[in-house]
Amino acid sequence: MCDEVRCTHHQSVVESFFLNEEEKKMKMEKYSSLLFICFLCVIVFCNGIETPQFTVIHTESDFEVRLYRESSWMSAPVREMSFEKATKLGFHRLYQYIRGANLNSSELMMTAPVLTSINPKTRESEYIVRYYVPMEFHGVAPRPSTDLNLQFVKWISHCVAVRKFSGFAADNNLNKEVESLVNSLGKLQLGDSVALNKHQYSIAQYNASTHTVGRLNEVWMDVGSAFIKEGCRSNH
């Protein structure tokens, strides 16, 4: 009888132990899930900044290749030798558009990144500054006021090689970052599809000018059909 009682008591203690461990496990899983949700909230929802959608299809130590989905952009061509001046002038016109200088008088939300591209026809004598149009306006974006000289452009799904760098994107550091990406791509021996487009690049900026710490910039370069097996196409 005593043995039976002791056995029952022992079983009860063991069950209680595992129950407590199971409860702890459930609590930890719940806590981890909450942390993950909070993390998503910080980088996606709470931040409130919409960005183009993409999938990373190739990763190296100093760059990655992204497959971007179809996207829409409002573009401001700027004839200017300086990248910094061109970006400021172009974004000023785009900001007016965002704030309601369009035929609908609609205010659009700010998105990221602000993309400054070398015009492939004129290279360094002209830039194109682009604003990513939010998904809700991809079908029909509000028409800009004619005096702003903006063009609405739709991009097909395509692939770009991306190199990240910190600090401020400026005239005195862009060539170094672009050359680093070109050299890295050259090591992969991707063929002429990259070599032919090495002077056609874009600089993506994700932070406002008042954001001085932890800035994120990227060099984008179209890799054409170099990753055709992964579904890539050229955007040019």
Automatic annotation (TrEMBL):
Q: Name one Pfam family in it.
A: SOUL
What keywords appear on the UniProt entry? Membrane, Transmembrane, Transmembrane helix
Q: Which domain of life is it from?
A: Eukaryota
Can the keyword Membrane be found in this entry's annotation?
yes
The yes or no answer to whether the keyword Transmembrane is present is yes
**Which InterPro entries does its entry note?**
Reg_factor_effector_dom_sf, SOUL_heme-bd
Query: What transmembrane ranges does the database entry give?
Result: 31-50
Record's family? Belongs to the HEBP family.
What PANTHER family has UniProt attached to this entry? HEME-BINDING PROTEIN-RELATED, SOUL HEME-BINDING PROTEIN
The protein's name: SOUL heme-binding protein
This chain's source organism reads Papaver somniferum
